[in-house]
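From the shared-data thread, chain only:
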Amino acid sequence: MLETYLNPIYQRVMVLPVALRLRHTRWTPNRVTTLGCITGLCVALMLVLNLPIAAFLFVLVSGYLDTLDGALARLTETSSPIGTVLDIVCDRIVEFAIVFGLFLVEPATRASLTILMLGSILICVTSFLVVGVFQENNSHKSFHYSPGIIDRPEAFCFFAAMILLPQWFTALALIFSLLVFITAFVRLRQFFQYQPSDLQHAKQHT
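Structure, as tokens:
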């Protein structure tokens, strides 16, 4: 949701100027993606070391690099299937690392909630990818991008709040999981609505 409305301004003000500086350097989009993955892994380490401010800063850096790599790839016209796969895999690694780090803060009380969060992310990402496979791509991304209530910017906002406001972790985790589940449901419902012939065909074979 934030990406839909604020992304053009964010890209123009904060991302494009840096991408322009990097386009003639040795910093390729894949290297930026890898660095974003490493900084995401550092979030879990900072949480284990009880350094929430450092963990919060690594969340910001990792999220920023995740937007910078795509902008740099488009600017240098170096988008590729390898870059797309690397970006998607690194995104999931970072999300797992952050949720795992949040779990390690208080394993005894956070186990069920972090499993719920991971489950919601798994279902939502699956819906995102399978819909992207069958939908025509009209965006600047490598495949069809269907925005939802909770996209990566919103998820990182929730992660940051969970890190900085541990007393609100339970409420934030429940709200996050609910919104992610709703995002997956709405995405699939919209996809099914635009595939009437396929659904009719499926009914005829049941």
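The chain has a mean pLDDT of 88.
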